[in-house]
Amino acid sequence: MANCTPNSLSFSGLKGRKVEAEFSATPITSDGGGILLRSADARIKLTDRAAKSLTDNRRKASCRHSVATMLKQRVYGLALGYEDLNDHDVLRHDPALQTFVGRDVELASSPTLCRF
After folding, report:
1. Terminal Cα-to-Cα distance of the chain (whole angstroms)
2. How many CB atoms lie within 10 A of CB 85?
3. d(Cα 33, Cα 79) in Å, to the nearest integer?
4. Helices (H), strands (E): how many in the chain?
5. Residues 105/98, Cβ–Cβ less than 8 Å
6. I want to staple 29 with a disulfide (CB 3.0 to 4.6 A). Which of 24, 73, 96, 97 is the partner?
7. Cα dist. 22→5, 7, 8, 25 in Å?
8. Close Cβ partners of 72 (under 8 Å, ≥ 6 residues apart)
């Protein structure tokens, strides 16, 4: 009988991070569906278009996180089941969510997202 299930699937990476779904490895994250969300969002550019429609009155020199990045962080977090902003105190350091959002550094804190 032929094995029709691939051993792994590769996705587009981020700044040297290899993104791969491997079915025989030890689980690293339970939020693997975020990579599909990122791929769908990249295709239809929903969060990028929504971010362009939002007014950003912040002083740019003081900002570490763009509106588009914070919107993706919040939307992807909600889609992955993290309804509470305080979840982002830990999630902001999660390499999987960082990769989904398109960053390789820590994401916005819950107080920053709250002000957003």
Report:
1. 54
2. 18
3. 9
4. 6, 2
5. yes
6. 96
7. 11, 6, 4, 6
8. 41, 47, 100, 101, 102
Would you give per-residue pLDDT tens digits along the chain (116 residues)? Answer: 455 555 666 777 777 777 776 666 566 677 878 888 999 999 999 999 999 999 888 887 888 899 999 999 999 999 999 999 999 999 999 988 998 999 989 999 999 998 87
Q: What is the pLDDT of residue 21?
A: 67
What is the predicted pLDDT for the residue at 28?
65
- Predicted TM-score of the model (pTM): 0.75
**Token pair for residue 81?**
């089941």
Cross-strand partners of 10? 20
Q: Please give the angle made by the CA atoms of 106, 113 and 77, to the nearest 5 degrees.
A: 70
Q: Which residues contact 103 (CB under 8 A, 6 or more apart)?
A: 14, 69
Residue with tokens 């691939």, as numbered in its chain: 6
Q: What is the model's pLDDT at position 23?
A: 62
* Amino acid at site 2: A
